[in-house]
Amino acid sequence: MYRTKGPKLKDLQDFTKGYFNGKECPVVIFKEFKKTKGHGWSDIDNKKIYLNRNMSLKRGFGADIGDDFYPPEDNINLKSAEQYFAVLLHEIKHFKVAEKFQLPKEWNKLRKRFNEEYCFAKKITNKKELMDFAFFFAINESCFSKRRGEKEIKRQERIEDFVYWVVHGYPLNHIKVVDWSLKEFKKRREDISRYLN
User: What pTM does this model have?
Assistant: First the structure.
């Protein structure tokens, strides 16, 4: 597997500051990831963005959603260390999505039922187990049935968002995140190249 030679952490942090006001800016940290963690991770509660120090080069943008992979229609190939900025933009958007999230009306009632039927009854405290139960709860709810004309990956995103909101307090909104990060990368590509020279 091809490994990219990454940019300086200071440059990644400076780049991130352009998207946040002062103390709201998350700290960018290099970390060795397990395979299941992918290339980046947003710790929204603690205002941290983790990037895999030894990042493997992948072509283009996209995200795993449920059992599927979402690739944007207008994708691009990435060059070497550009990968770090592509992933960083992806994680930045997760922060922005969490800030502006508008809660669907029925979700509070669903969470109350979920807590009563699963969390309190089964005394679940482990987050991984909680996410598994939240997923099985959601797929049996009528509001997460496939809507007319809706693509299956969009339905899976709605379920994923509910599960993350129940467990972590915010959704992933992966389709919006991927589409925005690709568009923003194209707009900032020339700026990014200056960090890599």
Answer: 0.86
